[in-house]
Each structure stands twice: as structure tokens, then as C-alpha cells.
Design a protein that fits this description.
Blueprint lengths: L1 E7 L4 H13 L4 E11 H8 L9 H31 L4 E8 L1 H11 L4 E5 L5 H5 L4 H8 L4 E4 L4 E2 L2 E2 L1
Parallel strand pairs: 1-2, 1-4, 2-3, 4-5
Antiparallel strand pairs: 6-7
Helix pairs in contact: 1-3, 2-3, 4-6
Length: about 160
């Protein structure tokens, strides 16, 4: 049994496939799943693109946009809780939203939550373009001392291609 699994998601097809592959191959129950999404601080700055549209201060507007984005992300995570319970064979799912640099926040949450496993897809939303600079998954592997299970979106498992 896995005591506590950290499952970071960017809501991509890769994250969905990683969860499905875990469901197919894992027979053990999971004590608790920490379902994490990190709002990339770079994405928020890109959205604003240096403009303060509604407020007198760009900093105040950035904070407001970040908070609203985190609220929407929490709603998306809450909508996934029942699926996560089924996939991971658990009754305990803790949705968590952070903002920052995704690989750094994943490593921090893994330590704070004292997880026994981090489950990561090898490819998320950014795909190949991000691969050239170093993927989030590889940076998490380098940064954390926690066990990490990397799952490819496509592989041959038992002679069958998925």
C-alpha cells in the first residue's frame, strides 16, 4: 500500500493517461492522494503582459488575477476528486493549489506532505518545446529525495501498445 501519493496535474492528456496507467497496473490501495495543481507564476505574468487594466497598481491586479485563477483551479480539482478516488483506490483526496514554479512547488509539497510517492507523467501541456529546456518531471526527479514514478503517455505494456 502507498501511504500517501502526490499526483500533480496540469489537466493535460498526459496527466490523464498517467492516472489511467497507474489504475491499470496498481493493485494496492492508496492511503491518501494529494491532488496538486501549480499555477505557473510565468503564466500569470504572461496573461498580464505588463499592463494594469483594472487597478491603479499592476502588483495589486496580479495578486487579484492570481487569487481568481487559484479559485477556478480549485473548482477543477474538486470536480476531479471522485475520479481520483476511483483511480487510486482511496477515500482520501486532498486538493491543493499553489502558485510558483511548478517543479519547485511539486518538490516542496512532497516534503511538506511527507509523501511516499510522486506520480508524474513524462509529458504535460508544453510537450516537446519544454523538453529542450528540461522538463518539469526531470527537474522534480533531480530536486526531491522522494520516490518518483514517471509514466509515459504512450508505451508498450505487456506487449500491447497503449
Amino acid at each position: 500500500m502507498f501511504r500517501k501519493v502526490l499526483f500533480p496535474t496540469d489537466f493535460s492528456e498526459g496527466a490523464y493517461k498517467a492516472a489511467k496507467r497507474f489504475e491499470k497496473t496498481n493493485e494496492a490501495r492508496v492511503g491518501e492522494v494529494v491532488l496538486l495543481h501549480v499555477v505557473d507564476e510565468g503564466t500569470i505574468e504572461d496573461l498580464m503582459n505588463g499592463y494594469s487594466l483594472l487597478y491603479d497598481s499592476e502588483e495589486v491586479e496580479l495578486k487579484d488575477v492570481e487569487e481568481k485563477l487559484k479559485e477556478k483551479v480549485m473548482e477543477k480539482l474538486q470536480a476531479k476528486v471522485e475520479d481520483v478516488k476511483r483511480v487510486f483506490k482511496t477515500e482520501n483526496v486532498k486538493p491543493v493549489v499553489r502558485s510558483g514554479i511548478p517543479w519547485e512547488e511539486i518538490a516542496k509539497v512532497a516534503e511538506e506532505e511527507d509523501v511516499s510517492l510522486i506520480l508524474l507523467p513524462t509529458h504535460g501541456k508544453l510537450g516537446f518545446s519544454k523538453e529542450l529546456l528540461g522538463s518539469t518531471a526531470m527537474r522534480v526527479v533531480k530536486k526531491t529525495f522522494r520516490p518518483v514514478l514517471l509514466l509515459k503517455p504512450k508505451c508498450r505494456c505487456g506487449g500491447e501498445e497503449e
